[in-house]
Design brief:
With about 160 residues, the protein is of the alpha+beta class. The strands form 2 sheets. It has a 4-stranded antiparallel sheet with strand order 1-4-5-6, with no helix packed on it. It has helices spanning about 10-35, 40-55, 110-115; strands at about 80, 95, 120, 125-135, 135-145, 155-160. Helix content is about 30%, strand content about 20%. The longest helix has 28 residues, at about 10-35. The mean pLDDT is about 80.
């Protein structure tokens, strides 16, 4: 930049003064409109609010987020257990005696030997034996047989989303 191209302090002050005049004119116009035609004034404010709401509530991009869905399981196929709904990488997967009782009280928990086999570690190898629908969802539970670990041979029901 040459010295002739640099803005002078007077030019900067004049642009600030011009911006102040414009803002003052907008405010006075809005106040005049409020006094003379309040319906138009409040209608314009409502239109701006509706426009802002529409902009904020409209979706983002068309990007599809990766989700972990339920696989189409096959009887006799081997799978591993993973706590799909757990944020803990070491989250255990619950195996129950009756499908649908995942959150209910289970008498087998009172026996300490059985309790360890009701909460299996992730990556435990299992075999799918059958399926059960629940609450209108097809194959929501999988009847599994444990193929690895201390609970080998134990059978129970797991949520289908936890059988990967």
């Amino acid at each position: 930049m040459t010295d002739s191209e640099k803005p002078t302090p007077e030019a900067s002050n004049s642009s600030v003064d011009e911006a102040k005049k414009t803002a003052t004119n907008l405010v006075s116009t809005a106040l005049d409109l409020k006094q003379n035609n309040p319906k138009l004034f409040f209608g314009a404010i409502g239109a701006v609010v509706v426009l802002l709401l529409a902009m904020t509530m409209s979706g983002g991009s068309d990007e599809i987020l990766a989700t972990q869905g339920i696989k189409n399981h096959v009887v006799g196929q081997n799978y591993v257990l993973r706590g799909a709904n757990s944020s803990d990488a070491n989250g255990r997967v619950r195996i129950v005696a009756v499908p649908g009782s995942v959150a209910a009280f289970d008498d087998s928990e009172e026996d300490p030997k059985e309790q360890a086999c009701n909460h299996l570690a992730p990556e435990t190898q299992v075999k799918a034996l059958g399926f059960q629908d629940f609450a209108g969802k097809k194959n929501a539970f999988v009847n599994v047989e444990v193929l690895s670990g201390n609970c080998k041979g134990k059978r129970g029901w797991a949520l289908a989303i936890d059988v990967q």
